[in-house]
Design goal:
Elements: H1 12-21, H2 28-43, E1 54-61, E2 68-75, E3 79-83, H3 90-103, E4 112-116, E5 120-125, E6 130-135, H4 139-181, H5 187-204, H6 212-218, H7 227-238, H8 273-284, H9 295-303, H10 318-339, H11 344-354, E7 358-361, H12 368-392, E8 413-417, H13 420-445, E9 459-462, E10 480-484, H14 496-505, H15 519-532, E11 535-541, H16 549-557, E12 562-573, E13 583-592, E14 598-602, E15 611-615, E16 645-646, E17 659-660, H17 661-670, H18 672-675, E18 678-682, H19 684-689, E19 694-697, H20 704-709, H21 711-726, E20 751-755, E21 757-758, E22 768-770, E23 775-776, E24 780-783, H22 788-794, H23 797-806, E25 808-810, E26 813-815, H24 818-822, H25 832-850, H26 857-860, H27 868-884, H28 893-908
Parallel strand pairs: 3-4, 7-8, 7-10, 8-9, 10-11, 12-14, 18-23
Antiparallel strand pairs: 1-2, 2-3, 4-5, 5-6, 11-13, 12-13, 14-15, 16-24, 17-19, 18-19, 20-22, 20-24, 21-26, 25-26
């Protein structure tokens, strides 16, 4: 019996087990897909081949013979894989694979070819013209070669694509700058640029005779005086049917385009010599190399003054978009295609269904999500067409008549965009995408397609999605999929107008002021799912799954009886550019409640590869568990638990609260009165990394005489007074007592100091016991107590798990709060014996720390630097705490969280927050 593969990706041991398992394989037809499935999962670490861009039996039409062929495996931007039965000629297979490579469009050609017959691997770096060959038995010693392919080929492909993006963006940005410098901005200039890019793209992609737009521009006067007039005449011609044109029309080679693209009359742009030169530079570029997924980014870039300096910054990678559209609808369609592969009836039924799907992006921007989704639907239909031709014969009538007969079309796409410019861009980007897909259809099937005149287009509405009714745009039903990437605006960053819109969306619900702007789309989509049985999925800020927001959002959404059908936990949503703009996001899909298995992708860290779990339920925190909502509280669950209080809030401009060690030394030398009031001050940074580096003037007990006689105190207090009277946020009582911190919460006795923000990399939350004479600011929380059993629980794995899953985040760091984290934690009722054991374990941790006086608290809890004996002491606390919580020792974090949820429910029962 073959051994099971258990070792994770790219290790020699995994390669040894893989080689052992497959040493007897010989038959390509029977075994090659399973062979490579194992290879991708256990050696390359690919959990989901679809999201990774791996396709089996990828269609390609031979550039030399014109015959329809199928690549065994096509891994986008990584490799072409050709697999044979054991003993077959690998040289012949290599020629075959090189032919496939040549037949792929330029933007789709990876740099690596892999040939295998089970027993042997041949790796070919096409760019460097290098070949590596080794046997299956030698795979463990060569596994690094695959690592290099995965790590190297994908970036190189992206770099090539981005370099194209950057060059194209630079050309269009230069043109926009010239237009702007000559006084041309606003709506009509936007329309001009959109039309121009359409024409330049068409010039290079056989929409009409090659380069006729370029030839037209070159025929204009060198001073540019007739360019604007010529372009407007061309626009008018493109909007006029050929049978209605003047017989002497200079633009007779151009088709009748229509479709609204050239319908609007715009004023003439008066070009000068330099403007003409920049325009011709753009016309000289080969626009056919642009990948459809970057059209939107390209358009947005040339229009945005703030962002055009960072070329390519807004290009959202197709890989990230696939994380939404695959689990939302595409995976199901692809699986059904595979299941229907040998049935003409089922294939035709599936093809009909493809034409009934409607896609809505209610925050579509420049249309990137719709572009990618449309390309996938067209690819599915192309595979269906080719397969039906194989089953019925080349001449079979399967709907490809003179009107083209494709069931998938732009009429299935809908978008809402609040800004006019991106909404125009989205329409044109989808036109261009449609044209590229038609070229692909022609290349593979030989069917010539023309969309002119443009009688079909996507429906993109320039409107506020939070005000308009989505059902007025399209008929939403169970074949509708709603998705996108709504605006990321935090609760505190919303404009007055946005807050008003949000309040209306939530019907005045008081909790709506606490949620991020993206939650509005979740709410409206939940209504659509409830009323029309559609499905929805959005990228969102990860904060909607943390802190107060989950309970607010899902408490309200529960009335619509929807659930999370799939989700990606926090990950870094990065754009494929040298100047990456990364934010921490989540993805969640919504559907009506059902018993289906849910898919949850988790990440070891935000930049790691996702790991797929199949679970029975996904709750508001994107956790595999029960639908429990942890609501913020003013006081701890147990009345016997001491309060956790935010530190003193200075609001003084740093004049009395931010005194360096050097400044403190000077004050002691020069002003003995002020020196009496110098106290060490700590915030989170000082607690963790820099004790003794910061001081304050703590003037709670300062006499009027001291305040008047000390020059240091007089000057600094005067500066605080000026600061507070000039700040709208600090008017009132605090402005009338400038010698004091705005808010004073200083403990009277020694206290536990807990940082309000802690690194997500730490296994334990670093807390310390601090002398009451040390002043803490509001970057720390204090608990005034000497109960070391509480210190132990706060230093435990259980409390860390609670923080990790319940707290809000600052980027990816944990934000600990009293109301959401501490007050909701289900502290157990301890027996004397348990309290004593926990206290002893806490003393052990404290004593071990004392052995490292030169090491900061932050370094002691750095996962790489933590001393073994300190880690051992914490594990003892972990075991004791779990026992007190009736949670089995050795449980996973997920199981610990489930136990904590149950303890929370037991304690919350009957209580009022």
């Amino acid at each position: 019996m073959s051994p099971e593969l258990k070792t994770p990706a790219l290790s020699k041991q995994a390669a040894k087990e893989f080689a052992l398992k497959w040493r007897s394989a010989e038959n390509e037809i029977r075994d090659y897909q399973s062979f490579w499935d194992d290879f991708f999962r256990y050696l390359c670490g690919v959990e989901d081949t679809k999201i990774a861009g791996i396709e089996f039996q990828y269609p390609v039409k031979s550039a030399s013979s014109g015959n329809q062929n199928w690549i065994d495996i096509y891994w986008k931007n990584v490799a072409i894989i050709e697999h044979k039965s054991k003993g077959e000629d690998l040289d012949k297979a290599e020629l075959q694979a090189r032919g496939y490579l040549r037949s792929l469009p330029p933007g789709y050609r990876p740099r690596t070819i892999i040939i295998s017959d089970f027993a042997t691997f041949r790796l070919i770096d096409v760019t460097l013209n290098k070949t590596y060959e080794f046997t299956l038995e030698e795979l463990p010693d060569n596994i690094n070669r695959f690592s290099n392919i995965i790590a190297g080929s994908k970036p190189s492909g992206i770099e090539e694509e981005i370099s194209v993006d950057q060059e194209a963006a630079k050309l269009m940005a230069n043109l926009y700058l010239e237009l702007e410098a000559n006084g041309y901005e606003g709506h009509e200039t936007s329309v001009f640029l959109v039309r121009l890019l359409f024409l330049l793209f068409g010039d290079d992609t056989r929409m009409w005779e090659h380069n006729i737009v370029k030839k037209l521009l070159l025929s204009t006067r060198e001073d540019g005086g007739d360019v604007g007039e010529t372009m407007n005449a061309l626009f008018k011609t493109l909007n006029t049917p050929k049978n209605q044109r003047n017989k002497n029309n200079l633009f007779k080679e151009f088709p009748y385009v229509n479709g609204g693209l050239f319908a609007e009359e715009i004023g003439e742009i008066r070009f000068v010599k330099r403007m003409r030169k920049v325009l011709i530079d753009a016309a000289n570029y080969d626009w056919s190399t642009i990948n459809p997924t970057i059209f939107g980014a390209l358009f947005q870039l040339i229009k945005s003054k703030e962002e055009r300096a960072a070329l390519g910054e807004h290009y959202t990678s197709e890989e990230n978009i696939n994380k939404i559209i695959y689990p939302l609808f595409l995976s199901n369609l692809q699986e059904r295609l595979n299941e229907s592969w040998d049935s003409k009836r089922e294939l035709k039924a599936l093809r009909k269904e493809l034409g009934e799907i409607r896609l809505l992006d209610p925050a579509c921007g420049c249309g990137n999500f719709l572009v990618v989704a449309y390309r996938h639907l067209r690819q599915l239909e192309l595979e269906l067409i080719v397969r039906l031709q194989e089953l019925e014969g080349k001449d079979a009538d399967i709907g490809l008549d003179g009107t083209m007969g494709l069931v998938v079309g732009l009429h299935q796409l809908f978008g809402i965009e609040i800004l006019e410019w991106p909404s125009q861009v989205a329409r044109v980007a989808l036109f261009l995408t449609d044209h590229q897909e038609n070229l692909k259809l022609e290349k593979i099937t030989g069917t010539t397609v023309t969309r002119f005149p443009l009688t079909e287009s996507a429906t993109i509405r320039n409107d506020n999605a939070l005000v308009g009714d989505w059902t007025e745009l399209l008929n939403i039903d169970n074949k509708t999929f709603i998705f996108g990437n709504p605006p990321f605006v935090g609760t505190r960053l919303q404009s007055k107008e946005q807050r008003e819109w949000q309040s209306k969306v939530w019907g005045g619900y008081k909790g709506s002021a606490l949620v991020d702007y993206v939650a509005n789309w979740l709410l409206i989509a939940a209504k659509m799912v409830h009323l029309h049985e559609c499905n929805a999925a959005f990228v969102a800020t990860n904060s909607i799954t943390q802190g107060d927001q989950p309970s607010v959002i899902w408490d309200f959404l529960s009335q619509y009886d929807v659930e999370i059908s799939f989700a990606h936990r926090t990950f870094s949503w990065e754009n494929e550019s040298a100047s990456q703009a990364a934010v921490h996001c989540v993805i969640l899909g919504m559907t009506q409640r059902n018993s289906n298995v849910k898919k949850l992708w988790i990440y070891a860290d935000p930049k790691a590869e996702p790991h797929l779990l199949e679970v029975s339920n996904i709750n508001a925190y994107l956790i595999d568990g029960d639908n429990i909502l942890v609501k913020s509280r003013r006081k701890p669950l147990r009345t016997s638990t001491p309060s956790m209080i935010s530190g003193n809030k200075p609001r003084d401009g740093g004049h009395i609260s931010d005194i360096s060690l050097q400044e403190a030394k000077e004050i002691r030398k020069s002003d003995s009165t002020a020196a009496k009031y110098l106290r060490e001050l700590i915030g989170a940074e000082e607690l963790l990394n820099a004790r003794g580096s910061r001081f304050c003037l703590w003037l709670v007990d300062a006499t009027p005489n001291d305040l008047n006689q000390s020059q240091v105190l007089k000057q600094r207090v005067a500066l605080v007074l000026k600061e507070r009277r000039g700040a709208t946020s600090s008017k009132g009582a605090a402005a009338n007592r400038p010698a004091l911190f705005e808010t004073i919460t200083q403990p009277q006795g020694d206290y536990f100091a807990i940082p309000s923000v802690s690194s997500e990399k730490r296994k334990y939350i670093p807390i310390d016991i601090v002398d009451s004479k040390v002043i803490l600011n509001n970057a720390l929380f204090s608990i005034e107590t000497d109960d070391l059993s509480l210190f132990a629980i706060l230093s435990s794995q259980a409390f860390s798990v609670w923080v990790q899953n319940i707290s809000s985040r600052l980027e990816s760091r944990y934000q600990i709060s009293a109301s959401v984290v501490y007050n909701t934690f289900p502290f157990p009722e301890l027996t004397e014996k348990q309290q004593s054991a926990l206290s002893d374990a806490a003393k052990e941790v404290i004593d071990i720390r004392k052995n490292y006086p030169e090491v900061t608290l932050g370094d002691l809890y750095d996962p790489v630097l933590t001393p073994p004996e300190l880690l051992k002491a914490h594990k003892k606390i972990d075991s004791l705490t779990l026992k007190c919580l009736n949670i089995e020792n050795g449980n996973s974090d997920r199981e610990i969280l489930q136990g904590l949820f149950q303890a929370y429910l037991a304690q919350i029962d009957g209580q009022i927050a």
